[in-house]
Amino acid sequence: MSATMALPPIAADSAPAASRTYRAVVLAMLLLVYTFNFIDRQILGILAGPIKAELGLSDTQLGLLGGLAFAILYSTMAIPLAMLADKTSRTWVITGSLAVWSGFTALCGAATGFGTMFLARLGVGVGEAGGVAPSYALIADYFPPAERSRALAVYSLGIPLGAALGVLFGAQIAARIDWRTAFVVIGLAGVVIAPLFRLVVREPKRVATGAQAPLSSAFALLAGKRSFWLMAFGAASCSTLGYGFAFWFPQLLQRSFGLDLVGTSYFYGGVLLLGGIAGVLGGGVLGDRLGKGDRGRYALIPAVAFVIAVPLFAAGILSGSVGLAFLLFLLPQALAYMWLAPIITAVQHLVPAPMRATASASFLLINNLVGLGAGTYALGALSDALTGRFGNQALAMSMLAGLVFYLLAAVLLAFAAKPLRREWVD
């Protein structure tokens, strides 16, 4: 697709003629799709143990499956699919994407080795590439600016909800049947949801404003904004550790704390649900309230949160006690999710309304290609390298070393605050 295709003319910040009730329904459907997005994305983490044993994989190979295999096409395909969504129908792009990634999730259950699982995970990445950026743009069109950060926070609940449900359902199905059935059941459930989403969610009416803008102008506009680069690489830094933690945390609980598969699912599912939901919603509320008077606070809120989270995560990893670790992990898990709504909202306001999906996809390209592609692999490779010295504690040492990425994210986001104040587009 040519980057110079003309966008449909859309009002700068118009909201569709939709009732509050229908907007809530739209948000609930988008949340449901995003929840499946993360169920399918993260289920590999809880099933890594039995998959590793049956297929004879190393931690490095597991890291590639959980990160690079997914991230390669997920990151690169997001931009052309977002451009398609900006030009045509975002609801159709999301519907098709859900069907594709769910189908490939089911195919993961047929993997016979590293190669076939890698190919299936590539397919999951292709499908999920068309889900997030068009959803951000739909939310920005359906909700006025004063409610946007909170709406994006509700949508972002799909991350902890999906990750937690993937952990819980994946472990329960694997424990009762096997890991292959877990992939098939969860994948087919997403396929069923796809047509329901298309029936319920309407594409917002695009209001004519006159001049059309070429898609290439979205990239040029973003490239000239210092706050975009600082927020994108700040998010990529935190995602390097965040995605790595999400994938390897179940293995940490089994190797360092002695939990079995089902016990791990209850522990991690609880941390994700309680800590994750509190953090996502807290970030949205703080963004809307504190960001009104100072746009720079959209970047400062997560910067402060990451600094506080680092020593708490370290204490949890080193605690050696299941009960104490659960309490210690709750707060930093919440703090680690607080960046989502404020930063996503800020990115939406770096460009005019017709460019939002493309801007979001550009942000996600950097965030996911670096964060998702590198983080899971890096922690796995470091764990393999440290095994000779630390044995079963090698993964814990790897995760401790990875905490430096949260500190780097805090620095980058803090520097983004000043340019964000002048580069914000209302």
TrEMBL record:
GO terms for cellular component: membrane. Residues 26-421 form the Major facilitator superfamily (MFS) profile domain. It is a multi-pass membrane protein. It comes from the Bacteria. The chain crosses the membrane at residues 21-39, 62-85, 92-112, 118-140, 152-175, 181-201, 228-246, 266-286, 298-318, 324-347, 359-382, 394-417. It is found in: Membrane. InterPro entries: MFS, MFS_dom, MFS_spinster-like, MFS_trans_sf. Keywords: Membrane, Transmembrane, Transmembrane helix, Transport. The keyword Repeat does not apply. GO terms for molecular function: transmembrane transporter activity. This is Major facilitator superfamily (MFS) profile domain-containing protein. It comes from Sphingomonas sanxanigenens DSM 19645 = NX02.
